[in-house]
Amino acid sequence: MSRHHDDSYVPRHGPEAKFAVETEATLPTTKWEAEKKWALEVGLPGAPSLRDKSIPTFSRGELPHFAGINTFLKAPYLEDVRKCGNYDVAVMGAPLDAGTTYRPGTRFGPQGIRRISALYGSYSFELGVDLRESITIADIGDIFTIPANIEKSFDQISRAVSHVYKSGAFPIVLGGDHSIGYPTVRGVAENLSGNLGIIHFDRHVDTQEYDLDERMHTTPWFHATDIPNVPPKNLVQIGIGGWQAPRPGVAAGRERQTTIMTVNDCVDMGVEEAANVALEVAWQDAEAVWLSFDVDCLDAAFVPGTGWPEPGGFLPREVLKMIQVIGSKPLAGIEVVECSPPYDNADITSLIATRVICDTLACLVRAGHLPKGTVG
Ligand SMILES: [Mn+2]
After folding, report:
1. Which of 43, 141, 173, 281 could be joined to 58 by an S-S link, Cβ 3.0–4.6 Å?
2. Which of 51, 68, 85 is the last residue of a domain?
3. CA of 297 to the centre of ligand 1 (A)
């Protein structure tokens, strides 16, 4: 039997590709044109032999990707943090690995993430968003942490996050080990009259009270959920499992009734459905929701540069799909933690850390939550 089919029988695009290809035509290039003009002005016009007259002598802005100073996505570095409220998004590093109980090195996380973020353009094909055209981003540098004193570092981190949150800029925190989850949440919560929910991606529960006699990267949610307006019923933990879940933490989670979803739980119900459940739990009677993303929720194969690699985790595409659902609702801010460049291979851990941040921003833009107040 001969098989005849016309074009409509074999579509050129699936639904996602169709959306992506069509949406690109609707995105403006206004900011890109302005950036090129600015680059020529401050970087001087390029050599006469160059065909492309938009190329300056000195690299300014995005291009070429291997050149320039490594702020996050080559966003402008804002020295005067008092002005961070002039931007939609403020990126800050929390270079702290004093809470690490195995592999250190996350103090270099912000540097590693910033360095590889130079590889990223501002446009996501399948999300149909060009960040440069939609929002303004400032890199406000790093929080001054105190290497030998985790409690003083916590105080510094809370103060920094609170300052940015209060300014109206959307805070992005580049960790740092996961101990920073407690002070970041504390910094946001003090600005709220209502409750703060937490969506927590991790292989580890991080809910014990102390580890090795101190508050460490295994303890942030015990202390965060002690804050009166951060109730444990709004803490949802996604991807937990394996051989690195300390029993005291599991017991604390059971007593406090946190919501725990294993990798299999999520995959079996479908990752989109899992993300919807997470949204429901985190948002129940809450005023705002914080996203805490530990890169080790991914399978160890994808994140060699992390403090406690654990096999059996998510695939990157599963996590990114969940981010798309979670980013359909507003967020108070996001932290990406446990990225340890000294243990990384070919920057792949820093790459996924960058990707999670960029996808989150794009989804918030797409849903109208960024810039703030676009949609109610
Ligand atoms: Mn972890």
Report:
1. 43
2. 68
3. 7
Structural domain span for residue 56: 28-68
pLDDT band per the 50, 70, 90 thresholds, residue 3: low
Cα 308 to ligand 1 centre (Å): 6
Q: Can you give the pLDDT at residue 5? A: 58
Residues 35 and 151 in one domain: no
Distance 126 CA to ligand 1 centre (A): 29
Ligand 1 centroid to 4 CA: how many Å? 54
- In terms of domains, do 112 and 247 share one? yes
Give the dihedral sign, CA 359/260/216/100: negative
The predicted model gives 39-56 an average pLDDT of: 98
User: Would you state the structure tokens that stand for residue 270, as one six-digit string?
Assistant: 């479908």
Number of domains in the chain: 2
Q: Distance between CA atoms of 302 and 313, rounded to whole angstroms?
A: 9
For residue 306, report the distance from its CA to the centre of ligand 1, in Å. 8
One-letter amino acid identity for 160? A
Which are the contacts of 252, defined by CB distance < 8 A and separation ≥ 6?
A: 205, 207, 208, 209, 222
Q: How many CA atoms lie within 13 A of 221 on its CB side?
A: 36
CA 233 – ligand 1 centroid, Å: 20
Distance of CA 181 to the CA centre of its chain: 13
Question: What is the DSSP-derived secondary structure letter of residue 75?
Answer: P
For the stretch 204-248, pLDDT in tens is 999 999 999 999 999 999 999 999 999 999 999 999 999 998 999
Q: Enter the tokens of residue 149.
A: 């004193």
Average confidence (pLDDT) over 355-365:
98
